[in-house]
Design brief:
heterodimer, A: 111 residues, mainly beta, seven-stranded mixed beta sheet, four-stranded antiparallel beta sheet, 0% helix, globular, B: 111 residues, six-stranded mixed beta sheet, five-stranded antiparallel beta sheet
């Protein structure tokens, strides 16, 4: 059973489109995250949720809107995609500070 | 603000030891972590050390912590080609709900 699963694994889309990435965790954790990893592999947190509530929004453009329908799911919707949004997006969940379980990532390519 | 720094590249021969170094800024961190990212995959928690420990050994992995200098290192004994990956040092941010990752050290193992 996959602990943190995100779909799709690959996403290729044109500039200006709107797309969503879904994430689910079956670990019973209260905290979930979205991270962005750029082409140099630098990892930057975007959002942190705890029990469906937004805790951290790291100055992410408001084209990015996370939604947590329940504490096992954290989806990411992106409007008006731009070339600079191309990256790998990781969902993660956490039982406590510092320890995180990551999904396999969604490689987003905007053309 | 909180920051975690590590060198970007390390190249070793198969069978040698690898030492990956990291410095961090938040001296109140209870735990410090090492994550491993293999190509095309998400980050996986490799090991961690409690802040009141100087050293932790786990099979081929040895973690050393120097709290005075805020320096953390990961030693991999008898490095194998399968150890080639990116290794991230990480600490929880103050207040929780976020993990600060270093830039990642790319370990190349030559056969």
């Amino acid at each position: 059973d996959t602990a943190v699963s995100q779909t799709p694994k690959y996403l290729v889309t044109q500039m200006g489109n709107d797309k969503s990435i879904k994430c689910e965790q079956n670990l019973g954790h209260d905290t979930m995250y979205w991270y962005k990893q750029d082409s140099k592999k630098f990892l930057k947190i975007m959002f942190s949720y705890n029990n469906k509530e937004l805790i951290i929004n790291e100055t992410v453009p408001n084209r990015f809107s996370p939604k947590s329908p329940d504490k096992a799911h954290l989806n990411l919707h992106i409007n008006s995609l731009e070339l600079g949004d191309s990256a790998v997006y990781f969902c993660a969940s956490s039982p406590g500070p510092g320890e995180a379980f990551f999904g396999q990532g969604t490689r987003l390519t905007v053309v | 603000g909180e920051d975690v720094e590590q060198s970007l590249f390390l190249s070793v021969r198969e069978g040698d030891s690898s030492v990956i170094n990291c410095t961090y800024t938040d001296s109140s961190s209870t735990y410090l972590y090492w994550y491993k990212q293999e190509p095309g995959a998400g980050l996986q928690l490799l090991t961690y050390i409690f802040s009141n420990m100087d050293m932790k050994q786990d099979q081929r992995l040895t973690v050393l912590l120097n709290k005075k200098d805020k320096h953390l290192s990961l030693r991999i004994a008898d490095t194998q080609t399968g150890d080639s990956a990116i290794y991230f040092c990480a600490e929880p941010a103050t207040g929780g709900f976020k993990t600060i990752f270093g830039a990642g050290t790319r370990l190349f193992v030559k056969a």
